[in-house]
Amino acid sequence: MQLIPRLLAPALTVTLARLGFAAVLLPWFVIGGLSKIEGLTLSVGPPAGVWPLSLGAYYAFLPDVMAEGAAPTLGQHAFVLSMTLSELVLPLMVVAGLGGRISAVLLIVHIWIASLATGQLIATGSLFDASPFDPGPDQVVLWTLVLLPVAVQGAGPISIDGLLARLRNGRSPAQ
Fold first, then answer.
1. Is the pLDDT of residue 127 over 90?
2. Is the pLDDT of residue 1 over 90?
3. Transmembrane segments in this chain: where (predicted)?
4. Is the pLDDT score of 122 beyond 80?
5. Sequence-ordered list of residues with C-beta below 8 angstroms from that of 97, at least 6 positions apart, any chain
6. What global pTM score does this model have?
7. CA 21/CA 27 separation, integer angstroms
């Protein structure tokens, strides 16, 4: 009897982590990413930069540069574009279970870089304090913990990765 729970526990853990991520954080990432692309209904601000990004994208990821009124460098343009694309693509990959480990790790890195770039980790207070008004560090840790099972164990059997593994091993997709 102990064999069944032991075999199901990792699969259940990563599946629930992906479902929880899809229910709670996926809308946040998709809406956030779409708000940074110029010309869309959700866009924040006018077009800016070399790529089809809104001014809001630059304010989101380069607040200090924008506050100074300086023109972003080519490297900063590339940073904003890569952060915007990762905000749109990586969450969908995590939910679908495509490249589960690497997409979860890259999304964790994205979360920490975005938080550091915006000063959210430094300027908002201490970790696990009692104030609900500065959730920055707590939020970053919580989001990391939601993604950690997928980063460590992979996307699980109910995923594109799981389907590809079954096909690669010569089993039918339903097994």
1. no
2. no
3. 78-98, 105-128, 140-164
4. no
5. 18, 155, 156, 158, 159, 160, 161, 162
6. 0.86
7. 9
